[in-house]
Amino acid sequence: MSQYGDDDQRFAFETLAAIGHGVALWSAEGRLRLANPAFRRRFDAFPGGLEDGIAQPLFLDAVERSGLIVSSGQPPADPLGPGDLLSGRTLIFSDGAIFTIDGFATANGDLVTLCRDVTEATRNARALEKARETAQQADHMKSRFLRAANHDLRQPLASLKILIYTCITALTDEERAQALHAMDVSVQIMEDLLGALLNIGQLDAGRVTPTIQTFQLSSILDRLKLQFDHQAREKGLTLTILPSKAAIESDRALLERILANFLGNAIRYTDLGRVLVGCRRHGKTLRIGVYDTGCGIDPRFHEAIFDEFFRVGGEQRDRQHSLGLGLNIAKRLADVIGHPVRVDSAPGRGSTFSIDVPLGDILYSNVGEPEINERIGGEFAGLACLVLEDDVYLRSALTALLERWGIRVLTIDSFDDIAATVGALEATPDIIISDYRLRGGVEGPDVVGAINDLLEQPCPAIVVTADTNPALIQSIRDQGYPVMIKPVSPPGLRVIMHNILFEPELVPEIA
Prior knowledge:
CATH superfamily of the largest domain: Histidine kinase-like ATPase, C-terminal domain
Shape: elongated
């Protein structure tokens, strides 16, 4: 510093100290002349403090050996001078701070190093990039969802077309009744598919929460038989679904979706022979397998077939138009419910896709719908149900259904004067079924609460809604009302009515 006067030196120190960025002045030979406090604090890697006169290579070596810097960018190809090794670097410090180092030459040949804190700017840039990627991913997910919906809904829709023709041309009442029953199952399958596809759309967001319960596997196997039997016959295949009375622990809708994808793939890629669905116990689990005599899959593709949109080579070019989503959806759903998926296949030997499901205690299993219908047949006779539904067609259909069960149906047309309306009822209701959104912006739970305040003995209620928003559904349940999602399944409605009226301890919302 001898070439500078005392006043110059003092002025330089005061100026540099006032700068918020770290600043250091180096000689043309790369030795430190002076550094401001911000620079010294940032490079606090020297036991006795940073000394003037240290050469840049020794400075960098001491800083890197101290562990103060965890990442250091390379200097530019053409530095400003022989000692300007810092210029152009980006340094990441052990405390997470990110600094850029810029070098400037002075008129007298010295070099100035400017050390700028870009931590916040870098993090903001990364956040913007992540937001952009998230937006692109959401757009991609939307497109994938629409394709998946088209892909999966064509199956039961094709079944419906065939069944409608069968119903029209039926020669006997029994044949027509069977076709109508199969049509009803196809509609239920479409409803379940829509619900499952909505869940698929939420998988990437991590919002799919499985509902694990104990139930009998037969309820799924019977539906799979109805769903795929005609498709197998059209291809000249023999479809065998071995019966099982095993009770398992799983999510009923998601497991059915997985098995349906396995079964649909098996039929699609089998030209001759048979497709078999069977179960085998393995310790405390039940292995549910779908076996086919199809073309088979090379072992080198066994992992890749579960990737999105993956299809095996040109041999599938002439197959039914498949988007390669089925197995990907199945695998992702299996991961959600925690069930291992396996594949055993080789070219020319067919394929086996299986899933291992925990066995459940049959004493805690849900009773199948046909069994419930027989057990509670006639138990609603003589009861009164108040229906709060302002859609004329839905109210008419629900009224007809309840009356077939021997229930007296009461309705309310106006919600302006609840006290007068309740006083005019022909009977006191035993249960209330209410739509969530009623005419005039009125909410069903509020009307139910007002009605129960007027009744001498409040009655239980079910709230029905087409809104699948989890927060809304939970808010309704928090008010003590079980929720059913439209379109309402008659067997499901009958089960929940039975539980509410005769076994309320089974209904968590009112327990």
